[in-house]
Amino acid sequence: MSAGEASMGAWRMLRTNGPLRALFTARTVSYAGDSLSMVALMLHVANSTGQAIAVALLLLAGDFVPSLIAPLTGAIADRFDLKRVMIACDVAQGALVLLIALSLPPLPLLLVLVAVRAIAGQIFMPASRSAVPAMVPGAHLETANSVIGFGANTAEAAGPLIAAALLPFLGVQGVLVVDAASFFVSALVLTAVRAMPPVPDPDRDDATLLEQARSGLGYILRTRAIRIITLGFCAVVAFNGVDDVALVLLAKDTLHSGDSSVGLLLGAVGIGLLAGYALLTRYASKASMVTLLVGGFLVSSAGNFLTGFAWAVTAAFTVQAIRGLGIAGMDVGSSTLLQRTVPPAMLGRVFGNLYGTIGFAAAISYVGGGLLLDATSAPTTLIVAGGGGVLCTLVVAIFLPRALKAHPLPQAVDGLAASPPAPTDRQ
Fold first, then answer.
1. What is the pLDDT of residues 222-255, one digit of tens each?
2. How far apart are CA 319 and CA 248, in angstroms?
3. N or C: which end of the chain has fewer CB within 10 A?
4. CATH number assigned to the domain covering 208-407
């Protein structure tokens, strides 16, 4: 099949596959709304408190707190009908954002509401990832993941621009109402998806939610291939998560450039991400997901390493844009591998724990990287971060292929299993 046919296949999939189109639309709409509301909330907190620590607490409430209950969020996805879980999460998020918009509560209550909303979003994530294998044949998973990733990241990139356009007319409260509406629209769109009841699981018959959450953690710890993917992804994030802070200091202190250059560097990865997802909608079906995952780890880490040697903003921008291609590969490669290698009854818990562990890894990177930045410089921090990520990538490249060959696969993975994937209760 030619590249053009592959590209047409990706978008034809959206036109002809109603459930996938609904999920694509729902995630795109809600991601756009969520992105613009975060800009509004950051401005509100900064203006009302005048404290940088308050903005930092807001970000922690949205990004870190949900990771504390990640095993439970994944267990919910495995225990209940995925359609109902996703709709309930969207309705809950819309109601919470609307409450914030109407009341603009004091900071302590605002942080609680933002954290609860983020928890609902954390439940939605593993449910939506687990739903993809129920919507498309196993051979098309990588293309479906690429298309959904492209839509979500396009919306996330556009969110701040939409916020900038709406804030002068609607104010903070108006923008938050728009975000709330986006979640309600997302929930309405998802009503078009057919029911996706949980896959029969012998361990779930008499198990409580906590017991299921514990079994999900146990599965990752005792299953070598899944453990390598999870720990490898989180190790790369733990080293490289500090790059946003380091890029600000690189532009201002090392390259002696202005605020516009800071925005340019921070936006470079987003540009690379969109290009990466666009390319993957065309070529992912031809690629090995193992190679895509390991290559994504390598490119994203090497990008930070090389940025540490950048002599000008243009050089740093170019490398960071290429780095974005690697992050897209990490996302599509990991999602597709897990969807093909994890038993359907366990898939939500694996995704839930993966995203939760990534949240912890990012927090570790912010703290450790911040200390390293204070002790050294932005170039040194980027070189250390990227170099550590490259070393982690080499470990994954050595051990993951062997682990996958020994893994009992419910579906074929990149030719490691010769037979086509057997249908499941969700397909």
1. 999 999 999 999 999 999 988 877 888 888 888 8
2. 15
3. N
4. 1.20.1250.20
